[in-house]
Every structure is written in structure tokens, then in C-alpha cells.
What we know:
With 289 residues, the protein is α/β, with parallel strands linked by helices. The protein is built from 12 helices and 14 strands.
Amino acid sequence: MIKLIASDMDGTLLSSNLSISEGNKQAILAAQEQGIEFMVATGRDHTEARPSLEEAGIKCGMITGNGAQAFDKEGNLLFTVGLTFDIVQEVITILKKNNLYFELMTTDGVYADSREARLENIASLVAENIPHITFKMAIAMASAHLETLKVTYVESYDELLKRSDVEVLKIITFSDKGQVKLGPVAEELHHNKNIYVTSSFSNNLEVNHRDARKGYAVKHVADMLGILMDDVLAIGDNYNDLSMLEEAGVSFAMGNGEQIVKDTAKYLAETNVNDGVGKAITRAIEENL
């Protein structure tokens, strides 16, 4: 019997316009009314994840930064798994050597050193999800989306990294050349056994502590709630979702997901533009998966 649902956001819970559809919303609310815990498990920072949930009227727990942090439905911090200073410095050195733009997700929010580069990367994400629109339209949509997000722009990350009150949770880098450019960088990063390298889209790499994974975080939350992993439903579409799909008793891959995700999950859902999450939740409950 499903007692906890953990859903990815981008490419999964969110439709092509980065919002939660009415079908997904109603299925989530119905599950919550039945006493089933629902939470998002996302690569996003909690300040980036919250607006879409609030707009849909969904109050739930959050696993953020690929498992670097977790919050209960009231917004209280449950745990943090951050990167050490030495690891951060090593990763930054490698990314700079490869001339890659990157951002830092921290306990004080997301930091970026170029608004223009951030805008271009969000526009690329929008364009990838809505193939028929022009890049100019994608830029306009991305610009509007940025206005809803709390991001701190700095000229350099040097001063931030000197602060003792801030912990780096995740480093994310982008390239419009996709894995052709990022693949070799990932291989270089993999040599450090204390980090976990994954991606949520074809144009990015995400670097976390080796223990900051969605699967570990979902299990941690389930343990805190006294819920067995056999009673957990996980839904995702990309590489950073694999660990929770492997851990959960019931797992759905999105119809728009990567092939390896489909191969890993037990069931296949509809796409993110066709209420895939909502339909998966409804099926899991009705069929007692």
C-alpha cells in the first residue's frame, strides 16, 4: 500500500511551461486526503521549488538539491548533506579549466556570477521542453520565470566561499554542447570518490556529496516517518532520479524520460505534458501497486 509519494519536478511533475497541471494537482490532493504523504524530490533549491507548488496550492515536504537537503511540509529543515571546502575548490578548478559556466546552490540560496548566462540556460531548458517555440520566445519565458526565483548574483564566488556560515550543497554546470562537452568533464570529476555526479537535463552536470542522492534522502525521510520503502512510490524522468527509482517499492518512469530511467523503473507513466504524475498516482492507488 502506497504511504509516501516522491516525485521529481522538472520533466516530471512540471509541464512544458514549468507549472503543475490541474490533473497532477488534483491527483496529489486526492492522495493527501487519503493520508498519503506527498513530497517533491528535486535538483532545485527549495526557494526555486516552492513557487510552482504554492501556485498550485500544494503543501508538501521537499527533498532539494538532489538530496542535499530535506524539509517537512511546514518548511522545517530535516537534514543537510553538503560539500566540503576542498571538494568545492577542486570541482571549481576543473570547471574553470574547461571554460564552463556554473552556479552554486548553498544553504543561503542559489548564487550565480552571470545573469545573462543563467537566462540563456533556462531559455535552453524551455526551448528543449517546447520544441515549436523560437529561442526568442524561450528567452522571454525564461526572463519571466527568473523574476519568481531568488538568486543572488555576485562578481566572484571567492567571498562567498570564505563565509563560515554558508555551506555549498550542489554545484551545477551547463553547456549548450550537451554531453559532448560535459561527458569528459564528468569522467574527470568521477575520479573523486567523495562526490556524486549526475544530470537532470542533457545540457547540465550536477555535483553533490556522495551521500546526497535522491534515493538516500527518500529513504531517510521514509525512516523518519516510519514508512517502509516497499510502500514508497517514486516518479522521475532523468539520471538524478535513478537512485530513488531503485530504492522505492513502486517506481514510474515518465514517458518523456531517458531510456535508462525507463529500464530502471517498474512502470511507465504518461509524459509530463499529459498529466503523467497524476495518472501514475491514481493508478498506483487504484490498483494497489
